[in-house]
Design a protein that fits this description.
The complex is a heterodimer of chains A (260) and B (274). Helices cover 31% and strands 28% of the residues of chain A. Chain A is an alpha/beta fold. In chain A, the strands form three sheets. Chain A has a six-stranded mixed β-sheet, with helices on both faces. Chain A has a three-stranded antiparallel β-sheet with strand order 2-1-4, with helices on one face. A two-stranded antiparallel sheet of chain A has the order 10-11. In chain A, β1 and β2 form a beta hairpin. The model of chain B has no long low-confidence stretch (mean pLDDT 88). Chain B is an all-alpha fold. The chains are: A alpha/beta (260), B mainly alpha (274). Chains A and B meet through α3 of A and α9, α10 and α12 of B.
């Protein structure tokens, strides 16, 4: 399997403030990777480096030539007050292929409808974006990411603010897309419990440290307790992993006081 | 009444051109929530005019004082660069920077106007001098507006994309900062020229109220643009039709007509939603 993105001893920083250093990992073709960590840990920084909107201050981040991203942004980055139809939004995923100063053609519309079909909301194509539920809006953004025929689908916090049903449906949809088409997927989330049951590999960012591996290598009591600095339990229920902090957890990482 | 309006037909044409270009660009101003960027740019344009008047009063400046549009344009473009490129890196929140630009430009304009030896300066500052528009004035306005509107027609999808979701646009290779600069440049250009004749209140009105009417009436982007342009042109015609025979100040009458159309659109929207 060839790598779509390769980090080689990369240091990521904003000006002089180093967020993460010495990152070395790859995203191979066909991967289904979850990038997990709390808010402020550096997930978005890694994401920006993957997308190419942040250059490493040391080391290298290389992307395979002709690599195309299908990007699903965080929900609050999109302004849903715009008077746009669902089809208009999905067509935006073809804009770079259409070319500057040109209008989308019939073929682009057909592909946009096919993408809506793939996410199960083709009948909503003429509907105003403002009238959709949270789950339908997310499906619209996934369709927009797919219509550009990407090599790597990137979803940034795709289930934030969603109820249990919508969360399950969206994560199930992404897994189904990955299994059906072999599409490489990177899902960014702060919710380890959600992501761990869908992806095949996990990259965990926590207080400047970074660990990547198969789900079993990362989601186990020893690794998580070490990373989080508190005793962690990993249980299983109905085939799902559940990660819990042990009651009365004491600080186990030297020098870190969790009571503060 | 018709005779009176025909007497000022050049002024009416000028108002229609200002209404057309500002109502179109106003859709982006309102949707991008940069209404106060529009107000600040208009204020900076006013500052340019005020400096021209002051220079004329003290007898320096030459060509700069003959044509206030030159300094007005320079001040506005300075604002365009400030708002479109400077806001991302600053630690100060964007709305605070807009506030600083608005109030400082406004205060400086008042100071320069106070020391300007031009009698009508105070009126032009706030209300403009729309009835004084001549044939060459509205042709100049048209000469600026047509290229601006052509740029918007050509790059509609680019401006829409970077306004709606700039992160995704960036991942697809769009130079978001450059497109934003171009969008702001067109807005600044339209404001700088419209301000010469329309004044602060009228220009700000056309940048905001017709777009609000459009958003209340239409469900799609095409509809919003059509309703906004229609509302802007209608308000200009109504304002003229009422102000000339009833001896009312034209600018505020047009603004009142725009306000009336917003209220009407809001009522229609409420009736539709029942």
């Amino acid at each position: 399997m060839t790598a779509l993105v390769t980090f080689d001893h990369a240091t990521l920083a904003y000006g002089r403030r180093v967020v993460l250093s010495d990152l070395t990992f790859q995203i191979p073709d066909g991967d289904f990777l979850g990038l997990v960590g709390p808010n402020g840990a550096g997930k978005t920084t890694i994401l920006r480096a993957i997308l190419g909107t942040l250059e490493p201050s040391a080391g290298t981040v290389t992307r395979r030539p002709e690599l195309r991203f299908g990007y699903v942004p965080q929900r609050d980055q999109v302004d849903y007050s715009f008077p746009l139809r669902v089809l208009d939004v999905v067509l935006m995923g073809r804009y770079d292929r259409v070319g500057i100063g040109r209008r989308p053609r019939r073929d682009d519309r057909d592909r946009a409808l096919a993408a809506l079909d793939a996410v199960g909301i083709r009948e909503l194509a003429p509907e105003p974006l403002t009238r959709l539920s949270g789950g339908q809006k997310q499906r619209t953004l996934i369709a927009r990411a797919l219509v550009g025929e990407p090599n790597l689908l990137v979803l940034d916090e795709p289930t934030t603010g969603m109820d249990l049903v919508s969360t399950t449906q969206i994560l199930g949809l992404v897994r189904e897309l990955h299994e059906r088409t072999g599409l490489t997927v990177l899902m960014v989330s702060h919710a380890l419990n959600e992501i761990a049951n869908y992806v095949t590999r996990i990259a965990l960012v926590q207080e400047g440290s970074f660990r990547i591996g198969a789900v079993d290598e990362i989601v186990n009591e020893r690794t998580l307790s070490e990373l989080y600095g508190i005793p962690v339990e990993v249980d299983s229920f109905a085939g799902h992993r559940i990660v819990l902090a042990r009651r009365g957890s004491a600080v186990v990482k030297p020098g870190v006081d969790r009571r503060a | 009444m018709l005779d009176a309006i025909l007497l000022f037909r050049d002024a009416l044409y000028g108002a229609l051109v200002i209404a057309l270009v500002c109502s179109t660009l106003g859709v982006y101003v309102v949707l991008r929530r940069i209404v106060f960027v529009g107000a600040s740019l208009a204020q900076m344009s006013t500052l340019g005019i005020a400096i021209s008047f002051w220079l004329a009063g003290v007898g320096i400046g030459g060509a700069l004082t003959d044509k206030p549009v030159i300094l007005s344009l320079l001040a506005t473009l300075l604002g365009v660069v400030f708002f479109s490129t400077g806001m991302r890196r600053a630690r100060i929140p964007p709305d605070a920077r807009i506030g600083v630009a608005y109030v400082v430009a406004g205060a400086l304009a008042i100071l320069f106007i106070a020391k300007a030896a031009v009698g009508e300066a105070h009126d032009i500052f706030l209300q403009g001098n729309i009835l004084g528009i001549t044939r060459s004035d509205w042709l100049l306005l048209l000469g600026v507006s047509v290229p601006v509107l052509l740029v918007h027609a050509l790059f509609y999808k680019e401006f829409l994309f970077i306004s709606f979701d700039q992160e995704t646009a960036r991942t697809l290779g769009y130079r978001v900062e450059r497109w934003t600069l171009l969008l702001y440049l067109t807005i600044g250009l339209a404001i700088a020229f419209a301000m010469q004749f329309g004044g602060l209140m009228l220009v700000f009105n056309f940048l905001v109220l017709p777009a609000v009417t459009g958003l209340l009436m239409a469900r799609g982007m095409g509809g919003v643009f059509s309703w906004a342009i229609g509302a802007g042109l209608t308000a200009a015609v109504i304002g003229f039709s009422l102000s000339v025979p009833f001896d009312l100040p034209t600018g505020p009458t047009i603004v009142a007509a725009s306000g009336g159309l917003v209220i009407l659109a809001w009522l229609v929207r409420r009736l539709r939603e029942r």
